[in-house]
Amino acid sequence: MAEAADLLPVARAEEWLRGRIPGFSRIHAAQKTATGQSNPTFILETDAGRLVLRRKPPGRLLKSAHAVEREYRVLSALHGRGVPVPKPWCLCEDEAVLGTAFFVMEHVAGRCENDPRAPGLSRWTRAALYDDMNRCLAALHALDPDAIGLSDFGRPGDYFARQLSRWTAQYRASQTEPQPQMEALIDWLGAHLPPEDGMVALVHGDWRLDNLLFDPASGRITAVLDWELSTLGHPLADLGAQIMQWQMPVGPDSRGLDGVDREASGIPSDAAYVARYAERRGWRAPPDMRFPVAFAFFRMAAILQGVRKRALDGNASNPEKALRMGAYGPEFARRATRWISAGS
User: Fold this and answer.
1) Does 336 fall in a domain?
2) Which pLDDT belongs to residue 65?
3) Is residue 248 a contact partner of residue 117, using CB atoms and an 8 Å limit?
4) Separation CA 20–CA 18 (nearest Å)
5) R_g of the chain, CA atoms, integer Å
6) Could you list the residue range(s) of the whole structural domain that residue 66 is in?
7) Which residues 6+ apart lie within 8 Å of 216 measured at CB?
8) Mean pLDDT of 267-288
9) C-alpha torsion angle, residues 180, 186, 190, 192 (rounded to 10)
10) What percent of the chain is predicted at pLDDT more than 90?
11) What Gene Ontology molecular function terms does this protein carry (predicted)?
12) Do 221 and 136 contact (CB within 8 A), yes or no?
């Protein structure tokens, strides 16, 4: 409880929020969520209803990491435009208030599922959930960044080349021990960068089931969360990230679908999911996913290395979980090598 109190000085948050949210005057209770490993997240019970506050973690942070300001901007651009997101209320960039930037958004009802097998749902509802994930992803990528005020949200073109450079630098800045397989993966990705095809979209940056809320009765997505990695980029980056996650083992840490009978579960195969996405985008043929999935493995390994470094430095929101997650990073590099070999 002391940690939560340190991360969220309620009296200061309360004072700053007055006059910025209709009907708000008091925070009656604040509970830190178990999720939100990257950015500490709180459920606020207030006289204006239930709200959600997300802030950066304390301590020294990597450049451009934990960008709650970007999250707030993209929520503001997307709200009411066909991609389900919470209504953003206000952003505070004055670090004197809570020690870091933070924003407040509405609380959206829905189930958050960390296990992509979605246990407890019927086969029909599970199939509907996966199809709506596909629909939301296609809808997101169909939006014109210029039309929603995000023309400057990232540099268009050469997305994978720029991301490879960025995450290589992030990985090396947080490296704690040698990882030859990661170095080999970086080399492979550099040698197999796809040619520029002109496709630019707003990409989520971490598209997977546990970053969504959904209605467990219908499988309909109620909110897409965690936009801190969003940017202008190539749409196959998001699709590759989702396909990548499914290659991992089942379990609370890896959260994959390796070995799951998807047909019996109502979960589409990789090929069927990619084909449905391509159909919704109006493409004549499904895309080649070899590079996008390999890149997604690499980026997740780099992210987890950053989580491990924060834990070792004492800056993690949940230190025990961060150490466990960070230790899993090399497995993503190994799986990337397996994916590349299978596609050769």
Assistant:
1) yes
2) 54
3) no
4) 6
5) 20
6) 2-106
7) 111, 120, 121, 125
8) 97
9) 90
10) 70
11) transferase activity
12) yes
Q: Are 42 and 52 in contact (CB under 8 A)?
A: yes
Task: Round to whole Å and give the CA distance between 36 and 105.
Answer: 14
Instruction: Please tell me the predicted confidence (pLDDT) of residue 88.
Output: 96
Amino acid identity, residue 297?
F
Closest CA to 83 of 145, 34, 35: 145
Count the neighbouring beta carbons within 10 Å of the beta carbon of residue 306. 23
Please give the single-letter amino acid code of residue 48.
A
> What's phi and psi for 150, nearest 5 deg?
-120, 30
- Tell whether 152 and 74 lie within a shared domain: no
Per-residue pLDDT, 2? 36
Domain count, the chain: 2
**Which among 52, 150, 68, 158 has a CA at the least distance from the CA of 107?**
52
Region 268-274: what's the mean pLDDT?
A: 97
Domain check: are 29 and 129 in the same one? no
By CB atoms closer than 10 A (0-12, 13-18, 19+), residue 111 is middle
DSSP-assigned states of every residue in 64-75: T-S-HHHHHHHH
Give the whole-angstrom CA distance, residue 87 versus residue 81.
Answer: 12
Domain-located, residue 203: yes
What is the spatial distance between Cα 194 and Cα 63, in angstroms, rounded to a whole number?
A: 27
Rounded to whole angstroms, the Cα distance separating 184 from 331 reads 14
Q: Kindly tell me if the per-residue pLDDT of 72 is higher than 90.
A: yes
Shared domain check, 289 and 193:
yes
Give the dihedral of Cα atoms 130, 134, 140, 142; nearest 10 deg: -160
pLDDT tens digits along 227-260: 988 999 999 999 999 999 999 999 887 889 999 9
